[in-house]
């Protein structure tokens, strides 16, 4: 499926990126999974003539590695799964400023205020629900409503998952630690079922273990792609609710890079129509530029932007504070 999509988009990519005159290369540290991004990296290599040497790993671990390596790092580009990791590298002074032309036309929700990194694709938090055991009328208006007794024992969540932890960080940014801790304790008192990640939560809905799950938007579409009759849907909370957090996969050029021209071309390509359509069609993420054909399960980008809360993505870097709150709520 990915090969067909990439073949159909090759012409779009060639209009965006011209190969360099001579052979060149760059080193990418990727917190994005190999199966997820390797096809579009290979397409970039084909269109640009630039060889990409990739080191795959956990987003947070690679961010820590970059801080340890400092100016000695061989990396030219860092591609993180989470805005918090991008903010941490920016705060550490490891990212180079990007040309304003790369990000000036992107929606504000997809841009870093530092100008040192840019969103390559977006994803949102949603509430997934069983179409067999939950009605649309039961979907809460706010994520804070999930402490209500009517949801007791019916909710799934993944407290050790990076997506959930980033969401809690965003709740702290918008509502403060005290209110966030109160919500965490109220959710815990409602006896939610604990899962290791988003995939297992969605599967649990299908298996009848839970009726609701707090997940990222792109997991259910993957289940539906294999089984159009999968008994679940997903929805957003009310406009502006922190439960609708939009997070991003961010990408930036290292200040220590010795191949900045090649690195910037890589960043630019990931914002091209070819790459953006790939993220939507193959990865089930949201595009960060307009004019991309929507994934029918996910809906339109404009609808997401209308519902999303306004959050400074650079402010999601304080993971330690979030882990402390989760421990205080006996979730870790």
From TrEMBL:
The cross-references to InterPro entries, in alphabetical order and at most eight, read: Ferric-bd, SBP
**Superkingdom field:** Bacteria
Signal peptide per UniProt: 1-23
Q: Which GO terms label this protein's molecular function in UniProt? A: metal ion binding
Any GO CC annotation of this UniProt entry: outer membrane-bounded periplasmic space
Q: Which UniProt keywords apply?
A: Iron, Metal-binding, Signal
Q: Cite the binding residues for Fe cation.
A: 218-219
Q: What's this protein's family per the entry?
A: Belongs to the bacterial solute-binding protein 1 family.
Q: Which PANTHER family match?
A: IRON-UTILIZATION PERIPLASMIC PROTEIN, THIAMINE-BINDING PERIPLASMIC PROTEIN-RELATED
Q: What is this protein called?
A: Iron ABC transporter substrate-binding protein
